[in-house]
Amino acid sequence: MAKQKKIEPLVGEELLKKVKELENLSKEEKAKECGYYTVTKNGIERVNMMKFLNALIDAEGIQLDTSAGANGRGGRSASYRISVQSNGNLLIGSAYTKQMNLKPGDEFIITLGKKHIRLRQVDSDDSEVGEAMEATA
Predict the structure, then answer these.
(1) C-alpha angle 52/56/57, rounded to 5°?
(2) Phi-psi label, residue 75: left if phi above 0, alpha if psi -120 to 50, beta otherwise
């Protein structure tokens, strides 16, 4: 077997697209092709099915955790409602940015309407990409 270069595990839409392309492979082969494996000191490849399956669940937007765990941790779930804070800011929490696969440094153009705010993502060379995200009041 030829040694492959380890790829970064795919997430979000990229993961879903790749899994569909690999529909004829076993789930272990899909996980490996999507980057969910490690190589031991002895050169043995180990597929990490749990991380792969959790990434698929996240990519599909399925919420399995509905309440905090027994230790009181677990964070908040997205309610799709926000309030203006006392300092006048609107805060969009990490539940939303994770769901959209946004990374630190991603930039947006803000367009204000009478009762809505539109965010349009821009890439590194200031050209607009993707569809607009819109919040209405």
Answers:
(1) 120
(2) left
Q: In whole angstroms, how far apart are CA 133 and each of 26, 96, 99, 130? A: 36, 11, 13, 9
For residue 135, the SS3 value is strand
With helix as H, strand as E and coil as C, how does 55-118 read?
Answer: HHHHHCCCCCCCCCCCCCCCCCCCCCCCCECCCCCECCCHHHHHHCCCCCCCEEEEEECCCEEE
Helix, strand, or coil here: 18? Answer: helix
Helix, strand counts (H, E) of the chain: 4, 5
> What letter does residue 22 receive in the DSSP assignment?
T
Q: Which tens digits make up the pLDDT trace of 68-119?
A: 444 444 555 667 778 888 888 888 877 788 888 888 888 889 998 888 888 8
- The predicted-structure confidence for 52-72, as pLDDT tens digits, reads as follows 999 998 888 877 765 544 444
- Angle, CA 83 vertex, CA 80 and CA 87 arms, to 5°: 145
